[in-house]
Amino acid sequence: MTDGPKYGFDTLQIHAGARPDPATGARQTPIYQSTAFVFRDAEHAAALFNLQEVGYIYSRLTNPTVAVLQERIATLEGGAGAVCCSSGHAAQIMALFPLMAPGLNVVVSTRLYGGTITQFGQTIKRFGWEATFVDFDDLDAVKAAINDKTRAVFCEAIANPGGYITDLDAISAIADAAEIPLVVDNTSATPYLCRPIEHGATLVVHSTTKYLTGNGTVTGGCVVDSGTFDWSANDKFPSLSQPEPAYHGLKFHETFGPLAFTFHGIAIGLRDLGMTMNPQAAHYTLMGTETLSLRMDRHVENAVKIAEWLEKDDRVDYVTYAGLKSSPYFDRVKKICPRGAGGLFTFAVKGGYDACVKLVNALEIFSHVANLGDARSLIIHSASTTHRQLTTEQQRAAGAAPEVVRVSIGIEDADDLIADLDQALSKAVS
Ligand SMILES: *Cc1c(COP(=O)(O)O)cnc(C)c1O
């Protein structure tokens, strides 16, 4: 089918990017489990390598099953193109790679997925990149953190784990004024709840491991490009605007226009970093995207019910869910993610760290795992697991204080989930 604005989200999540297999008529997208693809002739091969013709060479770069998923996610996000890769963390590196060089920095929110704080705070230093962490509710601090070596601003739309919503319009205005791209991790919101490009984001990254797949089967990531950023407006992004020595002097922006970032991601990012998504993973994620809106509506409905129940319970100190009227971010939800604040939140258990550990052990339906965005309900005590390597101060800033647990509310019966929390809280708080 031809994709476009005439179709609604529910139609696009099933059809975008896919067509019946031209060879067999297969209605479902086949898993093209092939490393390499035969060239028609030497001329065809040359055209593919020169990026004059789009096609398949070798699955580290492009694969027909992965290509369907790329087009589907790009369409759902309202982007010009997308590159899938092996994990959400790979997507973050793939997004920054064309923009950065040793000595340059990225300004990032303090409210991020725990693994991202470590990736940005420690690991990227090995590339000579720096991350400056700032409270994104303090707009003056965000402005002040940007300097002439800054090449991107990075945040999450709905920030995991603390029930925080970023004011994407305000942040993108700051990035625009500094002539640098805003990169938004939209994993927790998904394009059904939030469309960052409509709020000014240049790039959107995903851990497709989570809600897009929706069943906890495979890891994957994706970088979506809005196609609207002018990489040639100044000399900040030479890999996109100037002759790129890693691709025989090709000027990506001049040659590919709005698809410059996407082509760069495949021709250089995947070619040289090799963080490729495999076709089997793309298949599972394609299956997941077909029911994304249905699942997200139920995740939100259940999360609201359970957060409201917890908030009234006197074994619980507080609940940080932006979908609660008591949340300081309640008004931002209407602007940034009008269909709801997602399925993730934290709550503080009376009795602190020890009570949290007991609660996690006593639950029967909720699984204690380091994951989110599954159809099944999940819980984790971040301070003793995912955020364990951070200081207590960093844990608090990230919304993962020692006395809180994070839940990823699934799509089971809300009443069963409430009953499970009720019995486990009785055991945890005496
Ligand atoms: C899980 C997650 C990541 C990392 O994704 P992986 O697929 O595990 O590499 C990044 N950001 C957010 C918000 C996540 O939830």
Structure explained in plain terms:
This protein has 430 residues and is an alpha/beta fold. The protein has 2 domains: 7-288, Aspartate Aminotransferase, domain 2 (3-Layer(aba) Sandwich), CATH 3.40.640.10; 292-428, Aspartate Aminotransferase, domain 1 (Alpha-Beta Complex), CATH 3.90.1150. It has 17 helices and 14 strands. It has helices at residues 9-15, 42-49, 64-77, 88-96, 114-121, 139-145, 168-177, 190-193, 238-241, 252-256, 260-273, 279-289, 292-312, 330-336, 352-362, 392-397, 414-428, and strands at residues 81-85, 105-109, 130-134, 150-156, 158-159, 164-165, 182-185, 203-207, 221-225, 316-320, 344-349, 367-368, 378-380, 404-408. The strands form 3 sheets. It has a 7-stranded mixed β-sheet, with helices on both faces. The chain has a 5-stranded mixed β-sheet with strand order 10-11-14-13-12. Helix 8 links the parallel strand 7 (182-185) and strand 8 (203-207). The longest helix has 21 residues, at 292-312. It is globular, with a radius of gyration of 22 Å. It starts with 8 loop residues before the first helix and ends with a helix. The mean pLDDT is 95. The structure holds pyridoxal-5'-phosphate. The site of pyridoxal-5'-phosphate has 17 residues, from helix 4 and helix 5. Pyridoxal-5'-phosphate binds at residues 87-89, 113, 115-116, 156, 160, 185, 187-188, 207, 209-210, 219, 221, 372.
Keywords:
430 residues; alpha/beta; Aspartate Aminotransferase, domain 2; Aspartate Aminotransferase, domain 1; 2 domains; five-stranded mixed beta sheet; binds pyridoxal-5'-phosphate
